[in-house]
C-alpha cells in the first residue's frame, strides 16, 4: 500500500466539510433564541482557542499523530490507554453523526422507513469512500465544499424576501448568560472536535502549511455557519428557531416558488460522509498505531459496523436525540476536547523547556 | 473482502495453453540460415507446409550447365507485397545484369552478397539477415527475402504493398468544420498522418511487436520533452507485460493495459482523427497506434475529455463555451433523468408543481404498470432498437428507424402501455447519451442502477447512488493521473479548458495535471 498524502487545499476542504457535517442539521446555538447569532460567535471564538491549542500541540510534536503525542507526554502505558479512550470517543462521534443524519431523514422525508435502513445505506457510502482511501476523501470534499457554499448562498438570497430583521430583537434580553452557555455548547459541538485532525495530520504533504490551512478553513466554516444561523433566525424568528428540531429544513421548505428540500439532504449527506469517514479513519488509524498493526484498512468494516449499531443504541426518539446532543454530549466531550488537550499542551511545553535546557 | 471477490475472477484469466505447433518447435532448434539452398527450400516448405500464398521464385545466375550456375531463391507472400516492385527491383536487374557480368559459381563468397546489395538490387531498404526466424518474420511482414546458395545469409527487401483503404473521412467522428481525414488500417499511413501534423524532430515513434500469433506492430508516439517521461515509461512497461496470442484491434491492447478493468468508465481514450490525436500528443499525452485498425489510443484519459470535441477548438470560442455546458448537461440528463422521474412520481409528488402533477397523473391514468417498470420497458425497447440499428445493414436500418419511431412514440402510448411523459423522458435520455458516445455504454448501466435505487427509496437512493458513483470516479486513475483532474485535485490553470473553453490564445498548451507530483 502506497502512502496516502493529501495537499493542504484538500485538508482545508476536509476541515470545512467536517465542521459543516452535523452543524447544518443541529446547531446548539439556537438555545439562545434571538441571540443565537451572538452565541454562535461566542462558540466560534471559543473554538478558536481550542484550535490554537491543537495546532500548538501539533507544532511541538512535528510529524507525529495523536498517539505518538500522547505517548510522548504520558509514557507508553498511560499514553496508549488514553489513546484508546480517544478511539472510543471518535467512534462514538461517528455514531452520533450517523444517528443525526438517519433521524433527520426519517423525521423529515421518510417517516415510515426504519432508521436502520438509512444508517446502513449511509454507512455503505462511508465504507466505500474509506476503502478507496483518505486521498480520495480529500478529492471528494474538494468538489463538495464549493457546492455546499453555493447552496448556502443560494438559499440565503432566495429566502431574503421572507426575512424579518426585527427577529434579532430584543438583543440580550436576559443578559449575557444564555448566549454564553449556548456559545459554550457550540464551541464543543462542532468546533472542539478539531482535535481529531491530529490523526489526519501525518498524511499532509507539506506539514508546515497545517497552521495556515486550518485557520483559513476555520474562518470559512465560521462564515458559512454564521450565514446559516442568521438565515434561520431571520426567517423563522426566535421562538420557531428554538422549537424546531431541524430549522434548516423548515427554511428550505419556506423558500417561495420551488421546493429545494432535497438540496439540504444532499448537502447533509455530502458533509456528513466526510465527517463520518474522518472519524472512522481516525479511530482505525489510532487502533493500528496503538497495537502496532500493519494495515488500518482491515479495521474499517468492523469499526463502521460497530458505529452503525452504536448509533442505533445511543438514543431513543428524535426528541431524546436532540436533547441529549444539546445538553449531555457537550459535558461528556469536555475531557476529550478541553482537559486532555490542555494537559497535553502544558506537558509538551514543559518537556520542551526541559529538552532545551538539557541541550544548552 | 476484496480477496474473496477476486478469487472467482481468477478463473476469468486466460489459461496459458501452449499455442506453438509442432513444426514451429522444430524450427526453433535451427538458428542460422543453412548454406545449401536446397536445405533452405526444404525448411521453408516445412515451415509454411505448402501454404498456397507463399511464393518461391527460383532464379539461376551464371551459365547453365557445368554446375557453374548460382541458384537464387526469392520468397514472398502473395497479396501483402507489391509484385511490380519485386519485378522491377529484384528480378529485372538480376536477370539483365546476368548477361553482362558473367557470374560464376566459383566466385561465390560474402562479397557477392554485398555486391547484390550495393550494386544490383534497386530498393531503398535492404537488410542483411543471418537468423532464419528473422527471415521468416520478414517474409510475414511483407518483405521479399533473397537467399543465395552457399552464403548462409539472406537479403530482406522491403516491397510492402497490397490493397489498403485510402485516407477517408471517418464515420464515427464527423465534423462540420475541421480536417476530414481519418486514420486507416495501415500503421505506416497513420504515422505519416501524424508526422505531417507535427513537424518536430522530437516527435518519437517507438515500435513494439505484441501477440505470439499475430505479431502485431504497435507504435508508441509522444513528443520528448512535452510528455511526462514517467508516464511514457509506465506505458512501455505495461505494453511489454502483455502476453497475448493475438492483438487484432487497439481495443485488445486497451483491455490489457487499462488501470481499472472493472470500472464503468474507460481510462483510455480512442480516436480516429489525426488532428485530435495530434492535439492530444501536443498536450503531452501518449498515443498508441496499432497496426490493422484506424482507432488510435491516447493516454492518460481524463473525464474532462469526454466533454471536449475537436471541433470546439475550430469554431468560435463563445459558442464552444456553451456547447461544453450542453455536453455536461447531457451527461447528467442521460444518467439521472429517468431515475428522478420515477422518484418524483412514486415518492415526492409534493415537489412537483401542482398543475404539472395534474397533467402527469391524467396521462398516467389507465396505465397498468408502475413508473419504474414503465421506464424499464422503454429503456429496454430503446436499447433493442439502437442495437438493431447499429448491426443492421444500412438499407434495412431505415426500416428499423421507422418501426422504432412508431413503436416507441405513438403506438405504445395509444395502446396504453406507457404514458406520454415517460416517452418524453426516455427520448431526452437517449438523445443526451448520443452526445457523449465515448461513455454511452457505461452510462446505460449507471442509468439502470440509479433507476433501481430511485425505485427503492426515491431521491435518497439517487443521492446515495450518485455519491457512490462520484467517489468511484474520484478514486479512478489513468496512468497515475487522477481521472477527475483538473476538477479534483484542483488545477486552476487547467480549468480554462474544461467546462469552459478560453479563447485559444489564452490556453496553455500543456496541462499541468500531467506533471503534478503525487
Automatic annotation (TrEMBL), chain A:
Transmembrane region(s): 12-31, 37-55, 67-91, 111-130, 142-160, 180-204, 216-238, 250-274, 286-308, 328-350
Main localization of the protein described in the UniProt heading: membrane
Keywords for this protein: Germination, Membrane, Transmembrane, Transmembrane helix, Transport
Superkingdom per UniProt: Bacteria
Subcellular location: Membrane
Topology versus the membrane: Multi-pass membrane protein
InterPro entries reported in the protein's UniProt record: Spore_GerAB
The keyword Membrane appears for this protein: yes
Protein's UniProt keywords contain Nucleotide-binding: no
GO-annotated cellular components: membrane
Annotated GO biological process: spore germination
PANTHER family from the UniProt entry: SPORE GERMINATION PROTEIN A2
Family indicated by similarity: Belongs to the amino acid-polyamine-organocation (APC) superfamily. Spore germination protein (SGP) (TC 2.A.3.9) family.
Protein name: Spore germination protein KB
Native species: Anaerovirgula multivorans
UniProtKB/TrEMBL annotation, chain B:
Keywords associated with the record: Membrane, Transmembrane, Transmembrane helix
GO biological process, one term: spore germination
Gene Ontology cellular component terms for the protein in this record: membrane
Record field: transmembrane: 325-347, 396-413, 419-436, 448-471
InterPro entries documented for this protein: Spore_Ger, UPF0353/GerABKA_families
Family: Belongs to the GerABKA family.
Record's protein name: Spore germination protein KA
Organism: Anaerovirgula multivorans
